[in-house]
Amino acid sequence: MLDRALVDGLFPADLPEPAELEERYPPRDLPDGALVTRFGPSPTGFVHVGGLYTAMVSRDLAHSTGGVYVLRIEDTDQSREVEGADAQFRRAFDAFDLVPDEGDIPAPAGDYGPYHQSARAALYQTHVRELMRRGKAYPDFATKEELAEISDAQRTLKLPTGYYGRWAPWRDAAQEDVQAALDAGKPWVARFRSEGRVGERFAFTDRLRGRVEMEDNHNDVVILKSSDNAIRLPTYHFAHAVDDHLMRTNLVVRTEEWLSSVPTHRQLFDALGFEPVDYAHLAPLMKQEGGSKRKLSKRKDPEASVDFYLEAGFPVPAVQYYLRGLANPRLAEMPLAEALTTPLRLDEFGLAGPLVDTVKLSDISADHIATLSGPDVVAGVRTWAAEYDPEIVKVLDANPELVLAAIDVERVGVENPRKDLAKWSDFREAYGFFFPELFTDVTDPADERFGELDADLVRTVAADLADTYVHEGDQPTWFQQIRDLAHRHGFAPNPKTYKKDPDAYPGMLRDAANVARVAITGAQRSPDLYEVTRALGADEVVRRLRALAG
């Protein structure tokens, strides 16, 4: 074991002692059974929806037990940090109601910080120094080339690869050799001295999976990285042990890819003298691809990014409801409001990865929007458009009465309201035709939307309806003028009549009505045309008909 003077000389002289840190970060004063959870995103890319899912679970479990949900930014891999990641985190947490009880985003809060790992270097170095003092860690000077040679030799001998036992040349190096390497200015990392042995087994109880058994860790893992200056940062493994102890986390929720790290983490907790945390390893979110499933991929799948849901404008309650249903299928059978307030239960999580299905999400979202009042729909569209489609905001401001009238078409006073909005970005396509600023007049009578009708006839029908248009009256009265229009221009009154002698007619009643529909809405399919005209008003209806009539 290296003497204390040499060990202490490896670290800044002003580091606190472990006992000081225990006083600075005391156990939390919380009710029995309260869970302290954390979410630890890394600013090396966009927020994955799986991260949103994990954060949601962590927050719910903490709050449902009277505990605390902490956000910790795990930014020790600064070479891969992406500019603007903190801003994206802020957008995601704000939008999906995942603002933490403690953390630096949206603003510094809490007594257990700093909450960026890059600002906690002294805490990690204190505990690495303590492990070295006790012979449970050591400086390692092996070069990349030497490590590669060790791995090659192990593979040749068909042995497990890694840095352990006789394959760890600096594990039991003499003090003189260590001092000589330091005097020569050789870079070093700190390695944990594992007591595990090749082939030994390890078991623990996962809060979600029950008893889990696997091979124990036998590697002397790196716990403190090399650095050209005194600011040395830890690896994920070591930061996890120190941070979750000092922040007094008692349940770590993370995906199953970290299962294999539990033996290493438990060894670190034991060596540091910390009470180990409990774990709940979630199944990862999956995607159906042909006849098989695979993990939702940052690289392949746009819906893996949280920004996908924000840019599309899926209402937050619909996304929350959908994700909660993936976690506990029982919640997917509840009304949305009830599901959002019913606590998640770990014993109801499945061990197979739930499928992310944006079609299903769209259905849920459309159902949710259909329950909202007109003003609530306008508010949702406005909030989304302010960020992603500013022209829509101008339209909403310029036409407040028309906006509400348009949204109410086939939504108010009906048993089955229209569900043409599944997300706020659908507004332009679904309702744009109501607004002169967004509507493009149909002026070509040969347009394919009129089917096979003769262009001259299309123009004539539009002109006739514009000249004779009557706006007043109930729906049957209003539609009678369309029947009369069709009759005047020789259209068959129904399909049966038309089929008897198709050459005798230019088309059917519906073809004549389609001229009016396309001229007024720009589409062959639209909400009830009578209700559309109520929203538009007589002047705008006639103006659009005359634009086609020429």
Can you lay out the helices and strands and say which pair or pack?
Layout: H1 4-9, H2 18-24, E1 36-39, H3 49-64, E2 68-71, H4 85-95, H5 121-133, E3 137-140, H6 144-156, H7 175-183, E4 189-192, E5 201-206, E6 210-215, E7 222-224, H8 236-246, E8 251-255, H9 262-272, E9 278-282, E10 286-289, E11 292-295, H10 306-312, H11 316-327, H12 336-341, H13 358-370, H14 374-388, H15 390-398, H16 400-408, H17 427-431, H18 455-468, H19 475-488, H20 495-500, H21 509-521, H22 529-536, H23 538-549
Parallel strand pairs: 1-2, 8-9
Antiparallel strand pairs: 3-4, 4-7, 5-6, 10-11
Helix pairs in contact: 8-9, 11-13, 14-15, 14-16, 18-19, 18-21, 18-23, 19-21
Brief rundown of the structure:
This protein has helices at residues 4-9, 18-24, 49-64, 85-95, 121-133, 144-156, 175-183, 236-246, 262-272, 306-312, 316-327, 336-341, 358-370, 374-388, 390-398, 400-408, 427-431, 455-468, 475-488, 495-500, 509-521, 529-536, 538-549; strands spanning 36-39, 68-71, 137-140, 189-192, 201-206, 210-215, 222-224, 251-255, 278-282, 286-289, 292-295. It is mainly alpha-helical and 550 residues long.
